[in-house]
Amino acid sequence: MARPRKPQSLKIVSGTARNDRLTESVKFPLIVDMPATPDWLPNAYAVNEWNRLVPLLMANKLLTEGGLSALAILCSLHGKIVQLYAAGECPTGHLSAQYRNLINDFGLTPVSQGKVKPFTGEGRPNPFANNGKRPGA
Fold first, then answer.
1. Cβ contacts of residue 17 below 8 Å, gap of 6+?
2. pLDDT tens digits, residue range 84-109?
3. Which structural domain, as residue segments, surrounds residue 84?
4. Whole-angstrom distance, CA of residue 63 vs CA of residue 45
5. Is residue 51 included in any domain, yes or no?
6. Where is the stretch described as Disordered (predicted)?
7. How high is the mean pLDDT of the chain?
8. Predicted structure pTM score
9. What are phi and psi for residue 62, nearest 5 degrees?
């Protein structure tokens, strides 16, 4: 059986997407106003992380309606990890791995910043659109 195609969203995040092969994908609306802090965040560390990250992601046009729940989970994990460190304990490897994966998804590490591109609403013009046409025609 053939290996299934890699989803377009994963190609974009990993930096292997090509504009000439992009297909139409679901476009989530950008968040332009500060969303309310979820009331289920576990502690003040998580709320502070929400209030720190939301303006950063909004300014870089990286926060969409579809990413709000993932961002809330990221902040919840951050709050739990900080709470564990404050209590003198170490977080589990699983907790750290989940946190690392989420911050990479949002482009919050130096390496992932180059892979995650903000949504501008318009694509780049095709530099090869005039190939095969006569100049001036």
1. 8, 11
2. 999 999 999 999 999 999 999 988 88
3. 39-115
4. 20
5. yes
6. 114-137
7. 85
8. 0.69
9. -110, -5
